[in-house]
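Hi U.,

Before I forget, here's the chain from the pilot set. I'm dumping it here mostly so it's searchable later in email.
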Amino acid sequence: MTVQNADKTLSRKQRLQEKQRRQLSVVDTVDKAEGKVRKAEGELALAVAEAVQVFGDEKSASEGLDMPIEAIRRFLDMAHHETPETGNHPETAASS
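Structure:
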């Protein structure tokens, strides 16, 4: 009877280990998602920088993209900081 009971009921140590396992799994999932978000933001920043060049200035790009000018500037700043590392769009750094 005690063997069956042990199979059904987890000890405190087992419950703690299971909780820690789930927590680590969630942390891992969040870390992976954050990496994807950073990559996507970098790609968006470069696309916005290109849009500013195509539209001619920040205000026109803001209107053309239907994006607040503050967001345009934030992405331009991101693109400016990303350019030396990636080597993409060197003209973006000069235009910001």
